[in-house]
Structures are given as C-alpha cells and as structure tokens.
What does this fold into?
Amino acid sequence: MKPMGGFGIALVVSAISLAAYGQPERNPAPVADAEGHLRVPADYHANYHMLGAWAVAADRGQGSKELHVVFASPGTIDAYLRDGHFGDGSVLVKEVFETATGSMTTGTVSHAQTLKGWFVMVRDSKNSHPGNKLWGDGWGWSWFDAANPSKTTSTDYKVNCQPCHVPAKASEWIYVSGYPALRK
Amino acid sequence: MKPMGGFGIALVVSAISLAAYGQPERNPAPVADAEGHLRVPADYHANYHMLGAWAVAADRGQGSKELHVVFASPGTIDAYLRDGHFGDGSVLVKEVFETATGSMTTGTVSHAQTLKGWFVMVRDSKNSHPGNKLWGDGWGWSWFDAANPSKTTSTDYKVNCQPCHVPAKASEWIYVSGYPALRK
It folds into this structure.
C-alpha cells in the first residue's frame, strides 16, 4: 500500500500545480447548480483567461461610458480553435464597469471606475434545462449585479439577454470578431 | 525521517493550492534579473489581480484607439490599502491593445484587437540599480513590444516612460485615481 499512497500524493501535487500556472484545473469553481441556477464562478480571476475588452462610447462627446473585460474558462479557447465552435461547458464571464473620463497625458481617457456586474454565459448545446427560461439557444444566460454574484436578476434570457446578441446569431450568439484569440 | 517526509509533502501541497486560488504564491515568476533587466512576468495572467482598465479616445470621432488592462502582483493591493503606498517589489503590468471600432447593439463600441505590448513597473524605493537608466524615482520601468516579452526596447525611463506619468508624481507616479481597488 505504501507505494500506492506515495503515487497518489504525487498525482495530487501535479494536478494542483497545473492549475497554479493557468492550465485547466480538475475542479473548477461551480457556475451552475443541478437546476441550472447560474452564479459568477468564484475562481474566474485566478483560473480563466482574458478573452478581450470592449469600450462603449459615451452618448455625447468623447470618451467611453462603459468598459467590459471578458474572461473564458480554462480550455475554451483551445477547443474553439480546434473545433470552430464553443464546447459544452465553456463559460464566458464579462465584467461591466462604469467609467470616469478625463483629460490625461495621452488624451481623453476613460477608466474603469465601478463594477456594475457580470454577464455569465455557459455553453449547452444539448438543451439541458428545457423548462428554465434562462437556458436556450445553446447557452445558459444570466446577469449579476455587483452586490450579488450568486443570484441573478435575469428572469428570461429572450427578454433580458438575447436581444443584444441577435447580430451575432450566426457565430453561436457571441461577437467572436472581438476576440482575436479565437482566430486561427 | 518518515513523519518529517510526510509533513514536507503536506506543506508543498498547501502552498501550491493557495496559488491556484489566486492567493500570493511563494515563487512568483521573475520580473527582473540581478542586473535589473526587466521582463514581462510569465505568470501574470494566472497569478496577478486585475487592477483596472483604460480606454484612450480616438483622435477624431467616437470610439477608443487604445484599450489598456492593468494587473498587479499578488499582495500589491493589500499592502497599498494597509500602508498607503506601493511596497517594494510590487509589480504592475499594463497590457496595451490597439482597437477596432464599429456600431453595435449597445452603440459605438471599440474592442481590443491587437496586443501592442506591455508596460512593466517594479516598485523599488531603495534605488537598487543606481547605474541603470531604467531604474529611478522609486521604480524600475520598461516597455515590451508584443513580440518580445523578455527584452525591453526602452533605454532611459526619463525619456521613454516617465514623461507621461508627471501629473501622477505625488502618488508615486501612478494614476491611482484610476484604480478603485486602491481606495479604502
């Protein structure tokens, strides 16, 4: 039994060190429970990969009113490059920041000031939760206010989430052209 | 000896799992060699914390010409909140992206398109490299083109780096007002 025990410990160390260096970890933080209630995965800053960033222009004048930073779960990018689509279980987390804008040495500059919340999407091509109004068209969808990353305020993805994604329907509802890491 | 050996393995596992969950790790990737040559730390996406994001407005019309995303080494934010200044060894990494701008469902939106490179700064209040023109005024300073994260193209921080930071001199040359996480 002793050699087996030592081997077991070595395997544990190996799996954890991969996670520490940004490789897929074996036990990622949960993003959905059995009923399909989503939450912001607690480990996304430590274990996800930054996929891209967006600046939404101010309605009047110069500057940006919002900054968005998007993270993808471990393995998402590699699978997309290999298969040409998002693999089931892939998670996207988009941070949404309100900005403040001012004149700086490099010009008119807006910076992330306050986190408003997160958009979370989980790929699900198998329609796993047909009775849940936050799942459909190949994804689980939810918005989370900054104050509560574990309980969504969304009630129906077709009303709360999908309308802004209609122009990206052909690319699995994701604006992949904004994510150069997804291009071969 | 056997009990000691088991205890040693347990300590290793504990240190590595902390790193996997975004806590300070014991052996971060190097950012400077003994002579003070900086490099982009290989682990910053996995182990650093996102400190903030910036959008630089386009010269004409709407949209942003650059997006910047800033990361701080483990412990930097906690030390700043505790002491009111950056602790020696704190590392800041700023990704600089060129953008593409278009009309989207949320308005005029720019997204990170191409990584131009990184600004790296390392806090050094002790003037550790007095003969090195990339160290001084409390920091090591360097720019890295995207093609070479291990060799800077900067030759003199007073010419290549510091001029854009002059308005932030009173806050240790850092635009801390753009980083809400540094506010108590």
